[in-house]
Write a structure and sequence with these properties.
Elements (H helix, E strand, L loop, with lengths): L9 H6 L16 H15 L13 H8 L10 H14 L1 H11 L1 H6 L5 H14 L21 E4 L2 H17 L2 H8 L14 H7 L5 H24 L5 E4 L4 H16 L1
Parallel strand pairs: 1-2
Length: 263
């Protein structure tokens, strides 16, 4: 999944030590809770020899899991998730969305409702615990033994969308379709129910024309970017810079913030 995930190139990987790049198989069960534990374990090791670690990411949930901690949920019978996954396959996402809307309207309004993983997670907690998923959110979390300085890059939405469209075209030129063809036997795996893969699976299954599948990748990526912006804009601690800002200016600001933390 090199092209579709826009993983760092060999040159980029050689420039600095990276972690959590291609460290899991698509056959592995992995989620944000497991990532939180793995990242914190790694950080505890890194901070023995480094004062600063850099985390780069797109998923606000995964970033918050590391920097602030996850909400605590009760253990849920795995049969509930299996039943919900079956409903997703048979009845579709809209059915699950309506079910969540009836059971937990607050969660329905607050989560990424077009993301089946998020909808199923909210439903399995609600059904398994007998309490709304939203009732477990925003409780007091464990404090982190490190300070976080958050940097965000901003751009006009028009520029973001144009760059997304161009990026998808470049990915297709680099061989995304061939990459997806090799993954076709695994198309039902959760790891592949993601933008860039699921649309091309529909093309390979004969459901869509290729041009339409590509346009859907662009549209769904734009929607994902919009959700990202909404998520990050809620964090008042983020220091925002225009994406064209000179790198040294941003580094100087980070250095200033680190110095303030050390005083």
């Amino acid at each position: 999944m090199q092209i579709g995930t826009a993983a760092p190139s060999k040159k980029e990987l050689a420039a600095a030590k990276h972690h959590f790049i291609h460290h899991k198989s698509i056959e592995d069960q992995y989620n944000v809770g497991a990532f939180e534990k793995d990242a914190l374990k790694l950080l505890s090791t890194l901070f023995k020899t480094h004062d600063v670690a850099v985390m780069v990411g797109g998923s606000g949930l995964y970033i918050d899991a590391v920097t602030m901690g996850l909400d605590n949920f009760p253990d849920i019978d795995k049969n509930i998730r299996e039943a919900l996954n079956n409903d997703l396959e048979v009845k579709g996402l809209e059915h699950l969305q309506n079910q969540l809307k009836n059971l937990d309207h607050v969660a329905f309004k607050s989560i990424a409702i077009d993301n089946p993983h998020r909808v199923i997670r909210a439903l399995e907690v609600t059904l398994g615990s007998g309490k709304p998923y939203s009732s477990f959110l925003n409780k007091e979390k464990n404090k982190r033994p490190f300070k976080t300085i958050s940097i965000g890059l901003s751009a006009d939405r028009k520029d973001i969308y144009e760059r997304i469209n161009k990026r998808v075209d470049i990915m297709m030129q680099e061989g995304l379709l061939e990459e997806v063809k090799k993954l076709l036997p695994y198309k039902n795996f959760n790891a592949l129910n993601t933008v860039g893969y699921k649309e091309l699976f529909n093309y390979l299954d004969g459901e869509w024309e290729l041009d339409f599948a590509i346009s859907e990748i662009k549209k769904n990526t734009r929607r994902f970017a919009k959700r990202q912006l909404t998520w990050f804009k809620k964090n008042e601690e983020i220091l925002w810079f225009d994406y064209l800002t000179d790198v040294e200016t941003i580094i100087d600001k980070i250095a200033t913030e680190i110095y303030k933390e050390k005083k």
